[in-house]
Protein 1
Amino acid sequence: MKWIYYNPNPENKNVGDCTVRAISKLFDVDWETAYLMLCVSGYYIYDMPNTFDILEDVLKRNGYKRHFIENTCPDCYTVKDFCEDYSEGSYIVFSESHVVCIVDGDYYDAWDSGDKTIYFYFSKED
């Protein structure tokens, strides 16, 4: 379980595009393709590509299901905690204002978001 630097943004920007970075890693596509996936969904739903509704639409269309996590702080369930408990598989986790992709217990992000509290996650349904 570790943080792995991941920023596929062609201009190396890392503010406001965490959803694009997470989708890029999850589906193993470049930043541009991930951005377009979100934009197409946004076009049909009439919403911006970085909103939760658009993220959920893209994930559900690709066989992912949302799961809630009970959190009672100060013992909050963090990205690092999730990685320890889910060491196999690919996931998208959602905190209050951030989206992260986790693959086989490692979290991929442009910065170390391991201490962020998770509220729910998406996993692939069989």
Protein 2
Amino acid sequence: MTSAEARTMDARTRATFLALMVAQAAHSVEEYHFRLYEVFAPARLVSRLFSDDLRTGFAIGNVLLVLFGAWCYAARVRPNHRSARAFAWFWSLLEVGNGTGHIFFALIRQSYFPGVATAPFLLGIGSYLCARLSAPPEP
């Protein structure tokens, strides 16, 4: 096997990455709808980077995040660019942490925390993507 072959991702791994990006888009909608920016200081901080209006800033930040994920898929992962695995690792670890964080805060509050409904998808798909990326290449 050449080093180029070792870097490529199979179709199932690329599809898993796309599923993770779809889950992140749904997660962003949930966070926005249930106003994460009102209950979580880091979300307020990020929101204020884009606008004085927290709602608008949060929307802009999340749209940019989802667009970056879409770009990663379209320009790096889908065409099997040599950097595809690095982007996939970045997103898988980010989303495992994101999903874990939302579940943690819901458990601490012992009630709903904005984003917790979609967090299991981020955690599950992100973990599966980590497993796919860690597995030896299929022949």
Protein 3
Amino acid sequence: MDWQSILRQISTSLIENGDLNDEFKDSSFDWLGAKGTSDSEMEFHEKRLNATLPPSYKEFLKVSNGFKQLNTFVWNILPVDQIDWLKKFDPDLYELYTIDFKDDFSASDEEYFVYGDEQKTTDFRSEYLANSLAISGWGDASILLLNPNVKFGREWEAWMFATWHLGPVRYKSFEELVLGEYSSYLDLRKSNN
């Protein structure tokens, strides 16, 4: 995937449509990304996390080590030095799904492995949420997570977890998440015009 092109396209769309989050509106920039990370910094943080990050996410970080806003609901995709396991990143959310909702979300394989429009956001597993990697701050009641428990080749399942969905919108990779969430943004823009 050409991350530079797709991230420029996302930046241009959000800026030209006036859909930037309030904290970014007064800034004069034409790119919502950051300088890419180095291989050595990536390796350092993989050791810190005790995990090999999925390829599409690593390629993204090499082009843009963080990204201000993906759509109108997701912002602050974090630089690699700020990502962490949910237990440490958001102890309250972690506790909610390891104690309060521990047994409430335990989808069968038949329910779980449905992607795209047929997917139900309540068909997930609490244990996977609890063991996920947080890669964004909280946007409009949403956060991006990577799930190392479900892999497609070397890619990890990627989640856009939003409180209004009652669960995550799941994708087979970080690349699919970015493309899917940007597509959802464009569809929302069309329906509002």
